[in-house]
Amino acid sequence: MTVFIVLFRAIGGANQLSVQPLKEALLDAGFGNVATYIQTGNVVLTSDLDQEAVVAKVGEIVEQRFGRPQKIIVRNARHWSEIVAANPFPDAVSEPTTLHVFVLEAEPSPEAVKLLESRQVDGERVAVIGSVAYLHTPDGAGISKLAKSVERLLKVPATARNWNTMMKLQEMAEKAATE
């Protein structure tokens, strides 16, 4: 069984998924060790399916059970650990709500990365490593123009999590691997 981290895009506010019914639906579908983290679209689960099949099956479950299509990005636990280890801004983890990781659906073009990097202002830092963009917003993501435009500038679907959430999901994945 492989441990997967399932990230839902655009969940939160009025667009929340109720975690208990979601967890039950995933368990009913045969996923193991299903755990959710806050109501903003974070699930850790185990499966013997490959990553693409997990994306398809979870997407199908959400559309059938909750009546709406939902974009999902999935990474296995090994890749998640690599994302955490590759953080180019280790000095920012002391203020984890200012460090954001955008998990991208695919690797962006070099031109798109250069465009994103050219938009850094006011102490913000951005680095793209493969299919992950790291953004440090010392004054907060809420006022960062760059944070709001990462996906648009990279031209790749993405979903972002702050460093606290990244670490909590890693902890949950490690626990799922031992159960």
Protein model, in words:
The structure is a single chain. With 179 residues, the protein is α+β, with helices and mostly antiparallel strands. It has two domains: 2-79 and 168-178, Alpha-Beta Plaits (2-Layer Sandwich), CATH 3.30.70.1280; 81-162, 2-Layer Sandwich (Alpha-Beta Plaits). It is built from six helices and eight strands. It has helices at residues 19-28, 51-66, 77-85, 110-117, 145-154, 163-178, and strands at residues 2-8, 32-36, 42-47, 72-76, 99-104, 125-129, 132-136, 158-162. Strands 2-3-1-4 form a four-stranded antiparallel sheet, sandwiched between helices. It has a four-stranded antiparallel sheet with strand order 6-7-5-8. The model has no long low-confidence stretch (mean pLDDT 92).
Write the layout of secondary structure elements.
Layout: E1 2-8, H1 19-28, E2 32-36, E3 42-47, H2 51-66, E4 72-76, H3 77-85, E5 99-104, H4 110-117, E6 125-129, E7 132-136, H5 145-154, E8 158-162, H6 163-178
Antiparallel strand pairs: 1-3, 1-4, 2-3, 5-7, 5-8, 6-7
Helix pairs in contact: 3-6, 4-5
